[in-house]
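User: quick one, fold this
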Amino acid sequence: MTLSQITPSQSDTETAWPKKGSLLKTSSGILQKNSKTGASKSDRSLSPGKANRSRFVYSFGGGKADGAETQKELLGGKGANLHGMTKLGLPVPPGFTISTEVCSYFYENSKNYPKVLEAQVQQALSRIEKLMGRKFGSRKNPLLVSVRSGARAPCLE
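Assistant:
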């Protein structure tokens, strides 16, 4: 496999911005102006506003991924890329992504997490335990985890 086969094309990495003419602060600190007339139909279906508000956890690993590289607004950049690499068949350790919708839900609901979140995290953690043959919290065969945080890039007006 060559690098060009695993590097996404420019069109695959574009983010559906909220409105034409808005500015986006990127991870490199550069502001980019949205000159697109709007998101494509497929991008809109993956945007956080259209997300399934009862699903907040997306698993990846074992050759399968619930999310996609195009879902950066929903999964964050790191999460979307991990899901994308998994779908490409690259050796990515199993994990899960808590969607950016949890943050929105938290502030829209008096700083409370969604009731289904804990069960979804437990289910995703159980999947990792099964794939790795280890148990979270075990003294004999512990599952070691790494936690990464991120946030949506804010749109500046």
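User: anything notable?
Assistant: Strands lie at 23-25, 31-33, 57-61, 64-65, 95-98, 155-156.
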